[in-house]
Amino acid sequence: MTVYVDLVFFNNLAVDGAVLLTTAKVRHLRPARSRLLLAAILGGIYAAAMFWAHIPYLYSFGVKIAISLLMVLLTFGYGGPLQLIRNFGAFYVVNFATLGGVIGISFLLQSADSPWGGMTFTQDGGLLLSWQMQLGLYVTALLLSFWLFRSTSETRKKRQDLEQLFWNIEIKVDAEKWTIKALLDTGNRLYEPLTRIPVMIMEAEVWREQLPPGWCDRLKRESPDLLISEMDNQLSEEYPWGSRLRLVPYRAVNGNSRLMLAVKPDVVMLSREGHPPLQVHRVLIGLDGGTLSSEGNYRAIVHPDMAQADPAKSAPSQPA
């Protein structure tokens, strides 16, 4: 069998460079190109060295770890023991995921008469796996493995970032309370214009039993000022939440000014894992006639001012 050492070197140079670059993307780092290239050259030289000199201990487990560690240090620097461990772990995770994907794709496309067709046992008990793949298919499989790993990592990171915005909220009105999942929206800057009370948004469906009959469905298609006018004529003395209702003007996405029906609660409690509970008195709850999350992950949108409340210095209840 003829082995071209230069091809081995350049092949490993490209693979090691891609692995290091993907590791940098996963770790959100930007190493210098010269450092990355130097580390990739080291990996290529190490892979090609087996064809230059027969040194058995050069490919022992300890030396492999040392070379990998040196490549990580050359690319990302030291940055402290914790940073080094994270970079080193990410480097090997990318290696296993991407190169394992290449081998998996090659064996998937390989055809043999039996499962043992691609295996050969040596005289000293070793096992050789036959791996034949055209260069174009190899490059395609390698790039596909990198892309799948990076896409999966970014999706997981986005999901983790989104989960950090979820809050459990408990709303108390008179003697009743409701507990729902909410999403913190830093872009929500809706305030009641006169008092500057922040307005959080909640699905009206949560309070279907508490709202006057038919209001929950009518909010989907009618302006809430019509509902308030009807209540003033018919239910002003019968409805217990009459004094809590507000009309809050806001600007829709299309630029038109609209009104939102809002309710003044007694208190809203916010809680999240790893954070102390927050108690907010000065807030209005705007009612949305639709569904805020198509997947049902949350039923309310928290105003960013609420997440900044100090639990030890929560303001007492103030009339809106």
TrEMBL record:
GO terms for biological process: asexual sporulation; proteolysis. It comes from Cohnella luojiensis. Pfam families: Peptidase_U4. The active site is at 185. NCBIfam families: spore_II_GA (TIGR02854). Keywords: Membrane, Transmembrane, Transmembrane helix. This is Sigma-E processing peptidase SpoIIGA. The chain crosses the membrane at residues 36-55, 61-78, 90-109, 129-149. GO terms for molecular function: aspartic-type endopeptidase activity.
